[in-house]
Structures are given as C-alpha cells and as structure tokens.
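Propose amino acids for all 194 sites.
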C-alpha cells in the first residue's frame, strides 16, 4: 500500500503473512476517494474467493462483495454476510442495482467488489450492473485482479465512469491486458452481453 486510503483500515497481520508465505504480493494503489466499485476480473476459480478474502484481511479495507443468493443459505450464509457479502437474486436484477446505488450514495465509505462476469465459467461478455452502480453513485471503478502467473493481487488502476460505456470498457480492457487468470480459457472477453 502506497499511502493511507481515504477510509478506515484495519489490516490483519496473519492474512498478510499467509499471502507472503504462499508467494503472493499485494499491489494496492491509493483509491481516489472513500467510495469505489472494485471489479474482480478474471474470476475463473473458487480460489479467487479464498485469495480475495486473504487480501481483504491483509490490507484491512472495509470491503463488501456481491454474490448469488444461493451462497447465503445455511449453514454458511450468516458467516458470508459477516465477511462482507451481499446476496443478489439474479431473477430481479433491476431493483437490486437501484438499491445498491442508494446504499453507495448514503454510505460515508464503501469498497464494493463485483465480479462482472457473474460466474466462474466462460461467458461471452460482462453484465452492465457494475457500470450502472458506479455511474449512478458517481464513484470510480477499480480494476481489481488476481494474477496467477505473477502471483500478484491488486488494483491495476481506477476508471471514472462516464456516459460513454464503450470508452470506459476500452480503458478497463487496457488495464487488464497483462493479467493472467488461473484458468485463462474460462476468462471471457471484456465487453457487454446483449
């Protein structure tokens, strides 16, 4: 971490030690403000979640993340919520996005992690909810990654959302160009579905 981020930070040394012993490096440039939609791409493995949680505890950022509602059933639902999880029912995406925008606007600080592919399997493009949330709440998009080839976890840069989603996607695509997934054949292209 270069300098202190603009929100409360509570790092956990045990998580940093686990990552270091496993050969992973954290690269987290200071966010431009106290609110952020943090993309996690590519998301191709269950290990992404484990490494992401370790990174969350190591850096101490107050991270919230979105997952499909079926993950939040007993017996692990309560634990996942305590770890920052927010359940999303894919059957009703429109109202969820509006609710998240309102939550982001009201919060004094938020680091909201979203996997824009929506799954670990290959898909031909991203869902646009991440952009709708960032644009609607007027907060930057962080390009979060887990690079398995170089064993790095971090943020490749920050993109302010604009009315030109194609230009925003081009900037996002450029930021993710050097990142290697655990299973590269499952990483879909950075464009919008439908």
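Proposal:
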């Amino acid at each position: 971490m270069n300098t202190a981020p603009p929100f409360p930070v509570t790092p956990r040394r045990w998580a940093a030690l686990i990552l270091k012993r496993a050969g992973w490096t954290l690269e987290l440039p200071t966010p431009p403000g106290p609110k952020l939609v943090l993309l996690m791409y590519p998301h191709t493995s269950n290990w992404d979640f484990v490494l992401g949680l370790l990174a969350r505890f190591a850096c101490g950022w107050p991270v919230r993340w979105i997952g499909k509602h079926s993950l939040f059933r007993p017996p692990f639902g309560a634990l996942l919520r305590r770890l920052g999880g927010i359940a999303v029912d894919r059957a009703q995406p429109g109202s969820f996005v509006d609710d998240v925008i309102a939550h982001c606007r009201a919060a004094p600080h938020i680091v909201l992690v979203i996997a824009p592919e929506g799954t670990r399997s290959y898909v031909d493009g991203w869902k646009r909810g991440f952009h709708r949330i960032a644009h609607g709440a007027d907060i930057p998009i962080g390009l979060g990654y887990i690079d398995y080839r170089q064993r790095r976890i971090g943020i490749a840069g920050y993109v302010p959302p604009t009315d030109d989603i194609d230009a925003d996607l081009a900037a996002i695509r450029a930021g993710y160009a050097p990142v290697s997934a655990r299973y590269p054949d499952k990483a879909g292209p950075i464009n919008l579905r439908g």
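DSSP finds six helices and seven strands in the chain. The longest strand covers residues 152-159.
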